[in-house]
Amino acid sequence: MPQNETITGLGLDEYKYGFVTEDQPVFKAVPGLSGDIVRQISHHKEEPEWMLDFRLKALDVYYSKPMPKWGGDLSKLEDTLDEIYFYLKPQDQMERSWDDVPQEIKDTFEKLGIPEAERKALAGVGAQYESEMVYHSLKEQWEEQGVIFESIEDGLAKHPELFRQYFSTVVPTHDNKFAALNSAVWSGGSFVYIPKGVKVEIPLQAYFRVNAERMGQFERTLIICEEGAEAHYIEGCTAPVYSTDSFHSGVIEIVVKKGARFRYTTIQNWSNNMYNLVTQRALVHEDAKMEWLDGNLGSKLTMKYPSCFLVGERAHGEILSIAYAGDGQHQDTGGKVIHAAPHTTSQITSKSISKGLGRSSYRGLCKVYDGAEGAKSNVECDALLLDEQSRTDTYPYIEIDENTASIGHEATVSKVGDEQLFYLMSRGLDEAEAMAMIVRGFIEPVARELPLEYAIELNRLIELEMEGSVG
Amino acid sequence: MSTMTAGPAESTLAAADFDTLAGGLTEPEAIAVARAAAWERFTALPWPTKKSEEWRYTDLTKVGFEALTPVVPATATAEALSADVREVLGRSGERAGVVVLREGRVAHLELEPEVARSGVVLCSIRDAADRHPEVLRRALFEVQPGPAEEKLWALHLALLGGGYFLHVPRGVEMPAPIHAFHIVERAGTLSSAHSFVYGESGARASVIDEFLSDDLDAETVSLHGATITGEGGAGIEYVALQRFGRGVKRFSTQHVAAGRDSRIVTFNVTLGGDLARTDVTSRLDGPGSDSEMLALWFGDSDQHFDHHTLQHHAAPHAHSDLLFKGALTDSGSSVFRGLIRVDKGAQLTDAYQTNRNLLLSEGSHASALPNLEIEADDVRCSHGATIGQVEDGQLFYLMSRGLTRRQAERLLVFGFFDEVLGRLPMEGVRARVREAIEEKIGL
Amino acid sequence: MSRFVTVARVDDVPENGTCGVMAEDLAIALIRSGGEVYALEDCCSHEEFPLSDGEVEAGEITCLLHGARFDLATGEPRALPAVMPVRRFDVRIDGDDIQVDLA
Q1: Which chains neighbour C (Cβ–Cβ under 8 Å, 3 or more pairs)?
Q2: Residue A409 maps to a domain
């Protein structure tokens, strides 16, 4: 069918940058999960006693919580977990300069298509390679401004009080089964602190890959954006294609203080065997603004619902989400906004595309507590179906306890219109180009928010792959 | 076979067994066996809790089912119409027939002779069980509810005996609606009634079920089920106007099956009771079928209204359109949980779902869960939900014209409802519903 | 005006432990931390779940359902997903009795 060819031509289904570099981990735990593994991780990271206790307790919580029965099919995940390596560490030391970065890892970046010049232009790269930050450099002016952008491990080691004050207050261990798992075995991720009033002009970019077969990735990121501060954090992940199931379960905690603005951009393109179960949540104070820009491609199953807890007056939360479910993939994504203070506002925009036997589901929550006077929320979900067998679902929860709130939710489902297609073809485009243009137009409202000026490979996935691979 | 005269012995639900419930009744084998099986299922299943999605916002475990006295209606009687019913009828325009049910038992039934001559059958469900046991068994006992609804549905079937049966033969167009009154009089009872409406090819029928009681001083539960089936090209309009008094908790499960090119309208108006749960499932079985699902509610005091809907597109080229609007004041609360499901192969589906809520007071709250599950690609589906207040501008305008805030607010609610009322095809039914709403919101 | 009602014995609430009691249709969680006894409404403000099943540490109680934490002295939320406080009650010890102010 020409239509299928067209969409295949967009190259979204195949993991384009799937490749394997030989991994040489310094430390590799045995597969599977146990108290001993947790102790080893903590010991290896030379953590304080309280963190070991925290991890061990989290492991018990993980065991005590049942597998979620909603969302995607997790029935095969438990078997997978026995085969996962819960910790890998490729190098002992953090690299401080580009010259010190091992050639193998440079090769990895090379293959990801980041030109040398662009790499240097990147203001700071926290790169995660097999669960650890391996490359990390900050511009001098940031350090002068007091901005902390470290690996999560260094954050704990160097800023123990700041770390402990916020860690696990946004996503506590008991929140859900996978937050508990992450709390037990977390490794890698970023620790970011933006001091009061500091505006970070260039986005902070963390960039990591999962590379060892059967390896679980449990990144943990903690971000504190102080009063009046502004920053943009970009994270992208790619994974090579492997035959056995793989698992990623991250926890992202963000605190946006009074009058601050923070944007968190993730584009994830996991290999088709990946379970990607992430809890990412922001606590948003008075007059602060939080934006999540979330792109989900690839994986076997993604369950991810970025959240904004609007706890201060006039706090604003925004969630922009693109999901692409190719054959055999299930993208169960969406967003949550919790209005707990007067005059808080939020907007969720979700665009999903399902192809072949792909399934995309929007799952969202809009909750307005009694007393959140004048709260306003608007949710728009659009789903595009490319094949007869494709599936899309929409499951919003709207719970309103405040009568002065104004809440709207709209969702539409459509296929690529024949008229639209014929029109474009009558203007000289071939069918492939026409289809690509329609898909591009469909996601454009969200895609235009991507920081193209820092177009590292993952950002290209949406824009360039869709535009460039046709024909 | 015929029904017996004596009703069963009475005990609480907790103490009841099937023999006491069925005591004194004889009924066709098919129905007796199916009812006994339903009772078994009912006793075996646990009550669903708030942990199940279907009961997330309505705590069924707080309803004291066990202490209620189940009523299994026995023989239909032929009572004269009571004054209150006569009064409503006197203001409701033309009708083709009247049914009065008390705790589900048919107390009065009449059908215009001319309509009867055209082949329309209107009888008690018990008589229908005798005459058409297989039709009833298939229509009722083969319905497979979801796991969380199974317990209540099984109870409804086990108690089945109340209700009426309307059958409109091929090509017959009823000139006016059937008006049924479901009256609950006895506090502390658990009763059940079923509305069975069947239109053959090309038939036209209109039914209004009106539910009423005084304010009752003990917790009382009324179960209701409706099966509304339209064969090819049939047109059916079904209205459920619920204006129970306080003390009554009401659970209604309505199943619509729309055949090829049929058009079925359901309209639920919820005004009364302490708690009202209404489940409406519309199954679009035939290509070209059309289901319009409408609802209005106005909740005050601490009333809680919970609506669950399913627009199930099993055939291609079908159309469904849902519009549910509610207004709440005092500590009233409501839930709308609706699903559009489009099966694989149900191409060229047009399905829409809209839920709008007005919160008039600080203590009121509403939840909306408009869901979609789409497995065909050539579809046009959309849903929308809003929760908000009446517009200040409109309110102030009306107040500047001399209305009190309350009057202005109520008038705006009425305007808000009008969009839905306007979609009722039969003028007489529309007038009756409008009147009942006026009475409730006190214009 | 305060109205203290005896709800438990001092021995009923161990250090870093809890005790759920009913007082005039109100479910109350008694919690002891640092020698002090605190009383909070026995229901998490996030989703209905008894706080008396929770864990006590450093002046806070953690709800075991989703990990929300509350300040024992004020009832204010200290960790998401809770965003609203739980009701707190004044407590006094009268001999061996724990009394809670229901006013």
Answers
A1: A
A2: yes
Q: Is B348 helix (H, G, I), strand (E, B) or coil?
A: coil
Contacts of C68 in chain A (CB under 8 A): 172
Tell me the three state secondary structure of residue A440. helix
From CA B251, how far away is CA B152, in angstroms rounded? 8
Q: Is-contact B133 B142, C-beta < 8 A? A: no
Tell me: pLDDT of B156 over 50. yes
- For residue A446, the enclosing domain spans 422-471
pLDDT of residue A192: 93
Contact at CB, A369 and C84, closer than 8 angstroms: yes
Contact indicator for A465, A16 with CB cutoff of 8 Å? yes
**Residue A433 and residue A395 share a domain:** no
Residues 403-422 of A with CB under 8 A from B: 403-415
Distance CA A243, CA B373 (A): 30
Looking at the structure, tell me whether residues A279 and A292 fall in a common domain: yes
Tell me, yes or no, whether A290 and A151 share the same domain: yes
Task: Report, as an integer, the average pLDDT of C14-24.
Answer: 92
Distance of residue A218 Cα from the nearest chain B Cα, in angstroms: 29
Q: Kindly state whether residue A139 falls inside one of the protein's structural domains.
A: yes
Answer yes or no: do A353 and A457 share one domain: no
Interface test with B, best of A70, A350, A369, A403 (most B CBs within 10 A): A403
Residues of A in contact with C81 (CB under 8 A): 172, 175, 309, 338
- Containing C6, the helix (H) or strand (E) segment is strand C4-9
**What integer pLDDT is reported at residue B17 of this predicted model?**
82
Nearest neighbour of B388 by CB, restricted to A393, A395, A406: A406
Do A315 and A284 fall into the same domain? Answer: yes
Task: Report the mean per-residue pLDDT for chain C.
Answer: 94
User: Which of B441, B293, B276, B424 shows the shortest CA–CA distance to B358?
Assistant: B441
- Give yes or no for a contact between B293 and B264, defined as CB atoms under 8 angstroms apart: no
Alpha-carbon span B39 to B61, nearest angstrom: 19
Residues in chain B closer than 8 A to A394 (CB atoms): 370-372, 383
Mean pLDDT, chain A, whole residue set = 78
Contact A281 C80 (CB under 8 A): yes
CB < 8 Å from A in window 107-146 of B: none
Please tell me the predicted confidence (pLDDT) of residue A89. Answer: 56
**Which candidate, B103, B111, B95, places its Cα nearest to that of B211?**
B103
What pLDDT score does A112 carry? 53
Using a CB-CB distance cutoff of 8 angstroms, which residues of chain A are in contact with residue B366?
Answer: 400
In a domain, A2, yes or no: no
Are residues A429 and A374 part of one domain?
Answer: no
Positions of chain A with pLDDT under 70: 1-30, 87-140, 206-216, 236-245, 432, 447, 450-471
What tokens appear for A332 in the block? 């169960």
Half-sphere exposure of A359 (CA within 13 A, CB side): 20
Q: What is the pLDDT of residue C31?
A: 95
Residue B396 has pLDDT above 80, yes or no: yes
Measured at the CA of A156, the angle between CA A152 and CA A160, to 5 degrees, comes to: 150
Nearest CA in chain A to C70: A169
pLDDT digits (tens, 9 = 90+) for A185-233: 998 888 999 999 999 887 787 643 333 333 447 889 999 999 999 999 8
Number of domains in chain A: 2
The reply to whether A453 and A397 lie within a common domain is: no
pTM: 0.85
**Alpha carbon of A309: minimum distance to chain C alpha carbons (Å):** 8
Task: Indicate whether A63 and A192 sit together in one domain.
Answer: yes
In a mutagenesis test of the A interface, which of C69, C83, C86 is the best target, namely the one with the most A β-carbons within 10 Å?
A: C83
Decide if A296 is inside a domain.
yes
Q: With bands split at pLDDT 50, 70 and 90, how would you rate the model's confidence at B426? A: confident
Q: Is A169 close to C81, i.e. CB distance below 8 A? A: no
Q: Is B369 touching A (CB cutoff 8 A)?
A: yes
Tell me the count of A-B CB pairs closer than 8 A: 109
Please report where in the chains the tokens 């953690």 appear, as a residue.
C62
